UniProtKB/TrEMBL annotation:
Transmembrane segments: 25-46, 52-69, 81-98, 110-129, 136-153, 165-186, 193-210, 307-328, 349-369, 375-392, 413-433, 445-468, 475-494, 500-523, 535-555, 567-590, 602-629
Annotated InterPro entries: DctM (IPR010656), TRAP_DctM-Dct_fused (IPR011853)
Name under which the protein is recorded: TRAP transporter fused permease subunit
Record-annotated TRAP C4-dicarboxylate transport system permease DctM subunit domain positions: 123-559
Region entry Disordered, spans: 638-660
Keywords from the UniProt entry: Cell inner membrane, Cell membrane, Membrane, Transmembrane, Transmembrane helix, Transport
Native source organism of the sequence: Halomonas casei
Length: 660
């Protein structure tokens, strides 16, 4: 699957993201530390977490970020001497916390910080900010600095936004030492659950899962109209469901799917937008959901299994929206399937599928049997590892497979390290919001502006979540948005699970929504299309994702909350509404649509939002009416064409004189 062009793009993405490509001694140091981190967490997952696991987690994560991500672009292939300093300091701040753990936690030392506590606390905050800047860019560290400034200078602000203010020593002690700070409950989720799932996903991908995903997707969809785009949708869904990053998903799968879509006749902009939309959807598709599901389970005290069960139907509807958009676009353009000799057969597509399928079956089965997510992920991890090592259909020799395991461990550890520093920074913002009451203040403003109207509350929360999620990874986007607007949902009397899924959707959709639209930016770079136009097209393709959260708020059976009949009816009306919405945005149903027809399809889709019987019946009736109308027009055109063909066939040939 690898091509020189794709490799260059992946390398460019790595350079743009600051990811360092080390060689020599420092490469061995980084890989050894990453492997040690992975082995420690697997061991802890099997034997049980230790008291200082959160600090040990960050003890590995922070140095790995400083080793793996450069301070300057020109240092992407080497480790300058001044980058050794933050590596040492990163080990020191977590090492000090571990040594002082009993005093800090059991003797409530965070209430009486010493000078050393404050020094190491300041260092920890600065190191987290710099690690975040290197790994995910400047936007999130700026948000953390704004939060810190608000906590310190809030007593100077007038009106509802002001608060009593906090001294710097109190803030540092809270962030560094308290149970709600950097090493607190959020980091516990990262160190015990997220890290194991991330390593499981990395193992699947590193050991050939990406090739299997692409081969299977092409074999299943290549023979359909718009096959390459449908293959991209399916492949990105499969890859994204076990990936922790939208941007990485676009960069990894897009280098293969986007050129294939362009070759089949899609415009560069539409190809890039399709990949960006499909990769974004991977962050809301179980089982991993960009690691947000684990954080959500901790925040709202709901089981992980319940969250992924509730998220499944909406996620499938989201992908149906993308699927139908690319289908209608293919029909509108008259695109042909991938030629049979250029696509893998189903047998080829299913080759080695057990390396992906069996571990996921083990994971789901153990979750259903009420094992903890950590135990289920460990079992799935070792199932995948054993199949990869001992299956005769796995690529390479047994020795080659053994040699590839450290790379898989390193890939998982590096991703887990990035999520760890993000969560540590999120914990700072969450602490500020809790200390200052900012979340309640924003929620109060939303409720006052909305006048208590649920729809207006949802629309305002949607805008806030999109803005707060711009340019941020999944976990950070969700946590930041939830910290600010979740209280408004509680005050409005909405269930916590559906409310947090609503917030997650719009925090994630910021990846395709201008003006930031990171997923669209990367996809546009691969396709050679303008990023802003790509983002607009991706927003259009993902429009179903903007509708679905409103649907499950108004219609809880879409989250599996209801009888079998209620769920079936909700899914049926949801499917019809999503198809109508896709037809409206693309401008094609059974035939090209007029603006009036597009408006009627959009109206019908919106009527299916609230789950009321009368509006559902009216919306479905309108769609059936438009279907019948276009079917009749197609039949009329076909009969007219057939009649003209018959008349031409029966017409007498011109006489010799006339022909002369």
């Amino acid at each position: 699957m690898d091509t020189p062009g794709s490799n260059k793009i992946v390398e460019k993405y790595s350079e743009d993201s600051g990811k360092r490509q080390l060689t020599g001694v420092w490469f061995l140091v980084m890989r050894s530390m990453a492997v040690a981190m992975a082995v420690f967490h697997l061991y802890a997952a099997i034997t049980g977490a230790v008291n200082t696991q959160n600090a040990i987690h960050l003890l590995f994560a922070l140095p790995l970020i400083f080793l793996g991500y450069s301070c300057r672009a020109k240092d992407n292939h080497r480790l300058p001497w001044f980058d050794v300093i933050p590596v040492i300091l990163a080990i020191a701040v977590s090492g000090y916390y571990i040594m002082q753990f009993d005093r800090i936690i059991y003797e409530l030392g965070y209430l009486m910080p010493t000078t050393y506590d404050l020094v190491f606390g300041v260092l920890a905050i600065l190191l987290l900010l710099e690690a975040c800047r290197r790994a995910i860019g400047l936007a999130f560290p700026i948000l953390v600095l704004i939060a810190l400034s608000y906590a310190y200078f809030g007593n100077y602000l007038p009106g509802v936004w002001g608060h009593g203010g906090f001294g710097w020593a109190d803030l540092v002690a809270t962030f560094y030492m308290s149970p709600t700070g950097i090493y607190g409950s959020l980091m516990r989720t990262s160190s015990t659950v997220i890290v194991v799932f991330i390593m499981f996903g990395a193992l699947l991908v590193t050991t050939g899962g990406g090739d299997t995903f692409m081969r299977l997707s092409n074999s299943l969809t290549g023979g359909m109209a718009g096959g390459p785009a449908k293959a991209a949708t399916l492949c990105s869904a499969l890859f994204g469901s076990i990936s922790g990053s939208t941007a990485a998903n676009v960069a990894t799968t897009g280098v293969f799917t986007i050129p294939l879509m362009k070759k089949s006749g899609y415009s560069p902009r539409f190809a890039a937008a399709t990949e960006a939309s499909a990769s974004t959807g991977g962050q809301i598709l179980p089982p991993i959901m960009g690691a947000a599901a684990f954080v959500m389970a901790d925040v709202i005290s709901v089981s992980y299994l319940e969250i992924i069960g509730a998220a499944l139907i909406p996620a499938l509807l989201f992908y149906l929206a993308i699927w139908m958009s690319v289908h209608f676009e293919a029909k509108r353009l008259g695109l042909n399937p991938i030629p049979k000799d250029q696509r893998p057969t189903l047998r080829e597509g299913l080759f080695n599928i057990e390396t992906l399928l069996l571990p996921i079956i083990v994971l789901i089965a153990m979750l259903v049997l009420r094992y903890t997510p950590t135990t289920a992920a460990v079992a799935a991890y070792f199932t995948a590892l054993l199949i990869y090592l001992f299956s005769w259909r796995s690529p390479g020799s047994f020795t080659d497979r053994l040699k590839s395991i450290p790379a898989a461990l390193e890939a998982g550890a590096m991703t887990a390290a990035m999520i760890a520093v993000i969560i540590g920074s999120v914990a700072i913002i969450a602490s500020v919001i809790s200390l200052t009451g900012l979340g309640l203040k924003v929620s109060s403003v939303i409720l006052v502006v909305s006048g208590g109207d649920v729809l207006i509350t949802l629309l305002l929360a949607m805008v806030v979540a999109i803005i707060l999620g711009m340019g941020l990874p999944t976990v950070a986007a969700y946590m930041l948005a939830a910290s600010v607007v979740a209280a408004a949902f509680i005050e409005a009397g909405l269930p916590s699970l559906s409310s947090h899924l609503f917030i997650l959707y719009f925090a994630i959709l910021s990846g395709v929504t201008p003006p930031v639209a990171l997923a669209a930016y990367i996809g546009g770079a691969i396709a050679g299309s303008h990023w802003f136009k790509t983002a607009l097209t991706a927003t259009k393709i993902s429009l179903g994702g903007f509708l679905i959260p409103f649907m499950f708020i108004y219609h809880p059976p879409l989250l599996g909350d209801g009888t079998v009949l209620e769920i079936a009816l909700a899914v049926g009306s949801g499917i019809i509404g999503i198809v109508a919405l896709a037809a409206s945005t693309i401008g094609f149903f059974l035939r090209p649509c007029s603006w009036l027809e597009r408006g009627l399809l959009l109206t019908a889709a919106l009527m299916l939002i609230n789950g009321q019987v009368m509006t559902d019946i009216a919306g479905i009736a309108l769609i059936i009416g438009l279907f019948g109308w276009q079917y009749r027009l197609n039949s009329t055109d076909k009969n007219s064409t057939d009649k003209n063909s018959t008349d031409d066939a029966r017409a007498p040939l011109p006489s010799k004189e006339l022909s002369q």
